[in-house]
Amino acid sequence: MKIEKYIEIINFAENLKNNTRHSWTSTGRRESVAEHSWRLSVMAYFIKDEFPDIDLGKLILMCIFHDLGEAITGD
Question: What is the pTM for the complete model shown?
Fold first, then answer.
């Protein structure tokens, strides 16, 4: 894939930082979709020992990309 396509995808994914969810952070601020995906990825990493047969790489990718459509649709 050409570098321009990667940049296009990264720019598209940036919308996740701007789209807020219908949930709030512990400080009472609306959470962005990107924050949600990041926190889910961190959680998945830390519970990996509870699931020794899990494909951690696949799990983390699923956490990162599971809400990518919300870059268009919102939460």
Answer: 0.81
Q: Which residue has the higher pLDDT, 67 or 4?
A: 4
Rg (CA), the chain: 14
Largest pairwise CA distance in the chain = 41
Phi-psi region of 51 (alpha: psi -120 to 50; beta: other; left: phi over 0): beta
Question: What tens digit of pLDDT does each residue of 4-24 get?
Answer: 999 999 998 898 899 888 889
Alpha-carbon gap, residue 70 to 37, rounded angstroms? 11
Buried-exposed string 16-55: b where 16+ CB fall within 10 A, e elsewhere: beebbbeeeeeeeeebbbbbbbeebbeebeeeeeeeeeee
* Residues listed for the chain: 75
